[in-house]
Amino acid sequence: MSALSLSQVSAGYGRIQILHDVDLTVGDGEIVTIVGANGAGKTTLLKAVSGLIPLWGGTVTFKGSPLARSSVEARAGLGLVQIPEGRQLFGPMNVEENLELGAYSRRRGGRPFREKRDEVFAMFPRLGERRRQQAGTLSGGEQQMLAIGRALMAEPEMLLLDEPSMGLAPLLVKEIFTTLRELNSRGLGMLLVEQDAMIALKLAHRGMVMERGRVVLEDSASALLDNPELQAIYFGQRGGGGGARTETE
Amino acid sequence: MTFDQFLQYVFSGVTTGSIYALTALGFTLIYNATDVINFAQGEFVMLGGLTAVSLHDAGAPLVLAALGAVAIVAVVGVVFQLLAIRPLHSAGILAQIIVTVGASLALRTAAMIIWGRESLPLPPFTGDTPIKVSEATILPQTLWVLGLTLVIVVALQVFYRRTLTGKAVRACSVNAGAARLMGISYSKVVLLSFGMSAAISAAGGVMITPVSFMGYSYGAILGLKGFAAAILGGLGNPAGAVFGGLTLGILETLTIGALPMSGASGYKDAVAFLILLIVLFVKPQGLFGGRSVEKV
User: Fold this and answer.
1) Distance CA B99, CA B94 (A)
2) Which of B159, B173, B174, B181 to mutate to test the interface with A (most CBs of A within 10 A)?
3) Domain edges within chain A
């Protein structure tokens, strides 16, 4: 059974429709990536899943139950946790406070905070060294680590990741993606939106290509990596595609 | 001005300054949670004082009257958010600010109908025998005002720094969207902020009533002074709000003392706003300028 499934989802902003009848499933412990150019609707799709924008049509189902009536706040408690675009840390608050807030949805009945916090610090030792430092003063890579750590505090079953590579040096991107692979090997499912199609498809099991709010291609990640058409469109622009990082689709 | 006179003015200044500080804190709490400037804030101060008067007149002991007034006004703050602010959520901040102006007029008129036009007294918390400090005297009520203000400020800091709920409120003021993704209910945080804001300002009203009485119309000027204090300290900064309130209170009374002519107290209100104007010209973000900048 798929953990997360979208059926005929459409959504948009104001009067402008962005998503058109998107179908998508992510299985337990599976990584599915959505690649596509700026404005293809990738971020909008994640927002529709996390509830930050309302659905115009279609359904989103998580662990067998429809999410239509659960608020954004309730979804984290269900195990569906989003790491938003641009990290969105609580900048003036310190590292440990950010982690504490990450565990907010598990404040009753969750695993003990210290235990989870120490796991995050074990995974990202640099965060442990900077636990009293303001999140806003961390480097870009550390901020992304904290964003991941904060999401893990919610004891997720599925992560929604929005452009985790954004604004990071290639070496850091590699480090982050290694961590994601490790988390996945422990059974954590992921829906990954990423501009860097190459690195995303190398991590993912399956991939979908979006264009103008529609899924135009869906296949196993390895097949997509070998797809000559995609190679021409997306992988050719690697390194050159970093200029337009302010997308708000 | 002799030193004793100076001391006398400072005592009087910190008393009113504390009330400005509590009103400014009220502005800060709501502003941080919602970006709304609540122009009905002064009415919460007024309602606090007058409700305490009524409860005391009805036979409640002073302590219960004070606590009861704070609790009742907190409920008024929550209801105010639910009925007046929340329906305008999608209409934007400006519409919400304008409705607070309307609410302040409505509350003032309601108070006039309930309590009449007279200024009403409340007995001091513990007698009115002045305490001699050097050649100046200090009223026991002044000590109460100072002490309780300090308690409120410290309690607020503990709440924001040490409790998960307090941290959740701060998280919402930094990034409400991200806070919601963590499972924090933004609408509950907003309600809590309105309730606490109203309670804190009402406490100021209860404490100042034994010193200067309370009337239905007092909220307007107290609200403006509290707003000036909040701006002075840097809007959104709780420590700045307290500092701004005390500074404003002391400068007001000292100016009255320093001006040579009789009837100088008529200039008291002008002083507050003159100071505000100067600060805004020199440092538009206030003395402790706004929220800290986030590195993106």
Assistant:
1) 9
2) B181
3) 198-238
Please choose, from the candidates B204, B143, B154, B152, the residue with its C-alpha nearest in 3D space to the C-alpha of residue B19: B204
DSSP strand pairing (A189-193 vs A206-211): unpaired
Nearest to A104 among B184, B292, B293 (CB): B184
Contact A210, A21 (CB under 8 A): no
Of B207, B231, B191, the closest CA to residue B152 belongs to B207
pTM for the structure as a whole: 0.90
Q: How, if at all, do strands A2-13 and A57-62 pair?
A: antiparallel
Q: What are phi and psi of B58, to 5 degrees?
A: -80, 0
Helices (H), A79-220: 95-102, 113-123, 125-129, 140-152, 170-185, 197-203
Is B162 near chain A, with CB under 8 Å? Answer: no
Cβ contact (<8 Å) for B181 and A72?
A: yes
Q: Which two tokens stand for residue B289?
A: 């300028």
Tens of pLDDT, residues B94-150 = 999 999 999 999 999 999 999 999 999 999 999 888 998 888 889 999 999 999 999
Dihedral of CA A173/A175/A176/A179: which sign?
A: positive
Under an 8 A CB cutoff, do A91 and B294 touch? yes
Contacts of A50 in chain B (CB under 8 A): 181
Please, which residues have CB within 8 angstroms of residue A101's CB and are 6 or more apart in sequence?
Answer: A90, A93, A150, B167, B168, B171, B179, B182, B184
Question: Residue A64: left (phi > 0), alpha (psi -120 to 50), or beta?
Answer: left
**B184 in reach of chain A (CB within 8 A):** yes
Q: Are B286 and B244 in contact (CB under 8 A)?
A: yes
Which of B:199-258 have CB within 8 Å of A?
none
ipTM of the shown complex: 0.89
Query: Which residue has tokens 């529609």?
Result: A214
Q: What is the DSSP letter of A11?
A: E
Residue from B170, B173, B174, B182 whose CB has the most chain A CBs within 10 Å, to mutate = B182
| Contact yes or no for B164 and A100 at CB 8 A | yes
What's the confidence (pLDDT) of residue B136?
86
Report yes or no: B291 at the A interface, CB cutoff 8 Å: yes
Over the stretch B13-35, which tens digit does the pLDDT of each residue have? Answer: 999 999 999 999 999 999 999 99
Tokens, residue A14: 């104001």
Token digits for B187? 């609408």
